[in-house]
Write a structure and sequence with these properties.
The chain is mainly alpha-helical. Helices cover 49% and strands 0% of the residues. The longest helix has 15 residues. The radius of gyration is 15 Å and the shape is globular. The N terminus is likely disordered.
């Protein structure tokens, strides 16, 4: 049996990027790299929706207003550290795959979160992976926005499912073509 050709994973930190390019050059290769988590179109859409909303259209790597959140996914360092301490520390294979997204073994993970889009996408996917509920189905924007609110923004966050949906539409989410698997 021959091995399937997989989409390539390359270090990425791209400014002024379109949602399609961000999906095909960052999100989908990262999801394929994380073989400990099943690839799905729904996960690709949820990550793109998160980034479109959180970064105001793939524009901000630092939280507007001076808050602590970093990356196009706007993950806070405390959340990042909690994922490492209370989740990845107990999952060696997945931990190794996330470490493989770092630009070097000794890289500062908080800087990587802000400037290494692959690492940030991987951490955002792990954040959703550790949530107790199954991902919403692909192409279900309402369910995806509610899932984002419950598991990413949380009840304490200022975001709303309606704003997530509006940002998805305003920043080009409906125009993106998504893969259904990791083959080329």
């Amino acid at each position: 049996m021959s091995a399937k050709a997989m989409i390539p994973l390359e270090f990425q930190c791209i400014d002024n990027i379109t949602p399609q390019i961000f999906t095909t050059r960052v999100i989908e290769p990262v999801l394929c790299h994380l073989s400990e988590i099943a690839f799905s179109k729904a996960a690709s859409q949820l990550l793109l929706g998160t980034a479109l909303h959180e970064s105001m259209g793939l524009k901000h790597r630092r939280q507007v207003g001076g808050g602590p959140a970093r990356s196009l996914f706007q993950m806070e360092p405390a959340t990042h550290d909690d994922i490492w301490t209370n989740f990845l520390a107990y999952r060696d294979a997945l931990k190794g795959q996330i470490e493989g997204l770092l630009s070097s073994p000794t890289a500062n993970k908080h800087l990587e979160l802000e400037f290494n889009d692959n690492y940030a996408a991987g951490m955002a996917r792990v954040h959703y992976f550790r949530a107790p509920d199954a991902l919403p189905k692909s192409n279900d924007l309402i369910s995806q926005s509610n899932y984002w609110k419950k598991h990413y923004n949380t009840a304490l966050g200022a975001g709303t499912p309606t704003k997530y949906q509006n940002d998805w539409k305003a920043h080009g989410g409906p125009d993106v073509l998504f893969r259904i698997d990791c083959s080329i």
